[in-house]
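Support reply, case 0932

Customer input (verbatim):
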Amino acid sequence: MEVIQVSNGKTVVFIDGQSLFITAKTLGFSIDFKKLLDELKTHGDVIRTKYYTLVDDEDENSPLIPLTDWLSYNGYSVVIKYVRSYVDPDGRKKMKGNINIEIAVDMMEIAPHVDHVVLISGDGDFSCLLAAVQRQGKKCTVISSVQSSQQMCSASLRKAADQFIELAQLRSKIERENNNSIDSAASIVRSPR
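Our regenerated output:
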């Protein structure tokens, strides 16, 4: 099992909600967000944990709403981007848009005030963001997975990080025991750019 390094300085965690959901689902488990927050706090002085997600602006009954409400009352700062959905030619509901700009702007704004950023995402588009944060003298950790049948983290993002933590290694500490979850709505797939 990989040893997770403890950060002695202030740490902020940035969670790409859809990436985390899809990665955990691919690995065959669901996230217990209370356990996740508790686990993150054992590895450093986590001063903020930010959760980013997309929500269909036409779906008043989105199951993501109870999840984001719960997160906001239980130690997470939640950033929601409302987007329009559409049905693709195969009949699947998809949302057009992503939350990457919001994550990037927030990370660049907070980086001067912390020592360590943790990014929970596998999106290679964040490689340049991590490099910019590192140029400010900050440590960058990425949590995602390369152990699933479908690699969920880009090689460029893993290489850009000071530390890569395999999500599968955290499973026993952050897995939800009951898989009937309010976050099942996160299964709505992002549309390709």
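We compared this against your earlier run and they match. Two observations from our side: Confidence is low (pLDDT under 50) at residues 180-193. Strands lie at 7-16, 44-56, 77-83, 85-87, 93-95, 116-120, 139-144, 163-166, 189-190. Please reopen the case if you see a mismatch on your end.
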